[in-house]
Design goal:
- Chain B: It comes from Drouetiella hepatica Uher 2000/2452.
- Chain B: One of its GO terms (molecular function) is ABC-type transporter activity.
- Chain B: Keywords: Membrane, Transmembrane, Transmembrane helix.
- Chain B: It holds the Pfam family ABC2_membrane_2.
- The complex is a heterodimer of chains A (338) and B (266).
- Chain A is an alpha/beta fold.
- In chain A, 38% of the residues lie in helices and 27% in strands.
- Chain A folds into three domains: 220 residues, Rossmann fold; 80 residues, MTH889-like domain (Alpha-Beta Plaits), CATH 3.30.70; 32 residues, no CATH class.
- In chain A, the strands form three sheets. Chain A has a six-stranded mixed β-sheet, with helices on both faces. Chain A has a four-stranded antiparallel β-sheet with strand order 2-1-4-5, covered by helices on one side. Chain A has a four-stranded antiparallel β-sheet with strand order 12-13-11-14, covered by helices on one side.
- In chain A, helix 3 crosses helix 4.
- The longest helix of chain A has 20 residues.
- Chain B has 266 residues and is mainly α.
- Chain B has one domain.
- Chain B has twelve helices and no strands.
- In chain B, helix 7 runs antiparallel to helix 12 and helix 8 packs antiparallel against helix 11.
- The longest helix of chain B has 31 residues.
- The chains are: A alpha/beta (338), B mainly alpha (266).
- Chains A and B meet through helix 2 and helix 3 of A and helix 1 and helix 6 of B.
């Protein structure tokens, strides 16, 4: 549905995105994850035809976003970072206006507008001036304008930014309900959002896509250091010794001896790191605990959250960036002395 | 073709709605009515006014050449309204694109299947319609004054005078729209439009100073000189062509600048 190939965009000498390539299948929700300034908005603006790319191609429903801009614009709904709203219009008038400029035929317009209002839970606000709406409702109107013409592709730039937790849940549910019949790209720098709403993630950092996968697989990719955490009663040191002998266990650490973490006197915590994610040793660990005659109070997988994945992927490159920044002034200085 | 027309109408209706629902535009209209009402008052009643001059002439027994008071009145009054319009119109055009930019709605328009031309034409028609709504009450002033005139004023004079006013407004609004499309500051857009108006206002004097063929060419650009043709009831094709050229130029530059803006912006 959406194909992006080797997309690059430079402003003067600074490059906003480089060689961005990804694909979104029909009905999928792709989460575009990256810190502020990573190039998410630039990529989305190229996809919507708002900005031209310096090189590379992007196609939506088979139409090139630059060559067939009008055909693409007919098929997309776009919510920019700040919802594009006319405060002096009522919600309903505004949606009618958007439906009109998106080319919805006069006969279909009332139905499409009502459907969009219904989907975004705006029916009781339809006659209210947008100026009088709260931020959360404005965001919903922003989403409503992106779906009012029933576009096959929907592009949402930071759809939950600035909303309160309840509104965030509403908006996420709304986005999820749109998948299937619509193909959705949403950008965010809020990590849990991606694992909650998206079927696939593209992580972008400094203008480059550094990973594309499903949220689960992306975590699995980094699960090499995955482990378990136990809380046991009894001889924890002996248990740790036994566990270390199991194949596939990298290390076992015992804590809680100093009572600083509030554990009862004879309980200890064990953190177990597995050396590979291929074998899940949970069953054997539990069996070892039971065989050793220890009491098991807690056993949980220390799952790497997407947040960790993200940090892992994006912090890696930071030192590289710092060095060239620090160097030029010194080389200039030495050049001057020469 | 039908789609483009539908798009233009959509933009036009939205633009018009925003003018009629904005308190600022009523303040602008109110200022316009107040100033033109004052002009009317002075033209009719001040000691140095047209009417008292004619009355003085009559008293002194001067009857030649005869003065068509109704015609002279309309000429002077529309001339004054034209000057007021130069002052008021930039306030109408200044927000045409800067507001869209501020609200981020330019991004909505740019990512909708609608051309920059259609947006510009719809906007210009919208603001021009609002201006026409602003000059409608002036017709009441004129009707009160001219209702008693004998011989009655020629309908073509009326039509040309007001048609000229609308054409000149279209020219200024179109250029003002372009100036509002190149900046994101409403105030700057207004100032640029005032500067342009001032230039087109004084260009006639500059032209007289320069003289020669350049001066003659420059004098053709003048707004008020061409507008005066209309208020005097002269049907001058070149004046119509000039105003329409300004309109088209403004539309063209607007469409181009929106496109260029999109290509550059960070």
């Amino acid at each position: 549905m959406i194909q992006v190939e080797h997309l690059s965009k430079t402003y003067g000498s600074t490059s906003a995105i480089q060689d961005v390539t990804f694909e979104v299948e029909k009905g999928e929700i792709l989460g575009f994850l990256g810190p502020n300034g990573a190039g998410k908005t630039t990529t989305m603006r190229i996809l919507t035809g708002y900005l031209p790319a310096t090189s590379g191609t992007a196609k939506i429903a088979g139409f090139d976003v630059h060559e067939d801009s009008l055909a693409v614009r007919k098929r997309i709904g776009y919510l920019p970072e700040t919802p594009p709203l006319y405060p002096e219009m009522t919600v309903e008038d505004f949606l009618h206006f958007v439906a009109r400029i998106k080319g919805v035929s006069a006969g279909d317009r009332p139905l499409r507008v009502t459907l969009a209002l219904k989907r975004c839970n705006l029916l009781d606000k339809r006659k209210v001036l947008i100026r009088k709406l709260s931020k959360g409702f404005r965001q919903r109107v922003g989403i409503a304008q992106a779906i009012v013409h029933d576009p096959p592709a929907i592009i949402l730039d930071e759809p939950t930014v600035g909303l309160d937790p309840r509104q965030i849940i509403d908006v996420r549910n709304l986005i999820k309900s749109l998948a299937g019949e619509h193909t959705i790209i949403l950008s965010t720098h809020i990590l849990p959002e991606v694992s909650m709403t998206c079927s696939r993630v593209a992580i972008i950092n400094r203008g480059q896509v550094v990973a594309t996968n499903t949220p689960d697989q992306l975590m699995a990719q980094l699960n090499s250091g995955l482990g378990y955490e136990l809380e046991v009663e009894g001889n924890a040191e002996a248990l740790a010794q036994h566990l270390r002998n199991l194949a596939g266990i990298q290390s076992v650490q015992v804590s809680g001896a100093d009572l600083s973490d509030g554990l009862p006197e004879n309980r200890r915590k064990l953190s177990i790191a597995l050396s590979s994610s291929s074998d899940d040793l949970g069953r054997q660990i539990a069996a070892t605990v039971v065989r050793g005659g220890l009491g098991l109070y807690e056993m949980k997988r220390s799952r790497v959250s997407l947040e960790d994945v993200f940090l892992d992927l994006t912090t890696e490159e930071k030192p590289l960036e710092v060095e060239p920044e620090a160097e030029p002034p010194s080389s200039e200085l030495s050049g001057g002395e020469d | 073709m039908g789609i483009i027309a539908a798009n233009i109408i959509a933009i036009y209706r939205r633009e018009l709605q925003s003018y009629f629902s904005s308190p600022a535009s009523y303040v602008i209209a109110g200022t316009f009515w107040l100033l033109s009402g004052l002009c009317l008052f002075f033209i009719l009643l001040s000691p140095s006014s047209l009417i008292s001059q004619v009355a003085a002439r009559d008293q002194m027994g001067i009857t030649t050449p005869p003065v068509d008071v109704a015609y002279e009145f309309l000429n002077v009054f529309l001339g004054a309204v034209g000057n007021i319009a130069l002052f008021v119109l930039p306030m109408l055009s200044m927000g045409l694109y800067t507001e869209e930019r501020k609200r981020g709605t330019l991004e909505l328009l740019a990512t909708s299947p609608i051309t920059n031309w259609a947006v510009a034409v719809g906007k210009l028609l919208g603001v021009l319609t609002f201006f026409i709504a602003m000059i409608l009450p002036l017709l009441i002033y004129e009707a009160i004054v001219l209702g008693a005139s004998n011989p009655p004023i020629q309908p073509t004079t009326m039509l040309l005078g007001h048609g000229g006013l609308v054409l000149m407004a279209g020219a200024i609004l179109s250029l003002g729209m372009f100036l509002s499309s190149i900046t994101s500051s409403t105030g700057l857009a207004a100032m640029l439009t005032y500067a342009l108006n001032f230039f087109l206002w004084v260009v006639d004097y500059i032209a007289q100073g320069v003289g020669g063929s350049i001066g003659a060419a420059l004098s053709h650009l003048a707004l008020l000189k061409n507008f005066t043709n209309f208020t005097q009831g002269i049907f001058d094709t070149s004046s119509i062509v000039l105003f329409l050229s300004y309109v088209v130029l403004g539309l063209f530059l607007t469409a181009q600048s929106i496109e260029a803006f999109r290509f550059q912006r960070s």
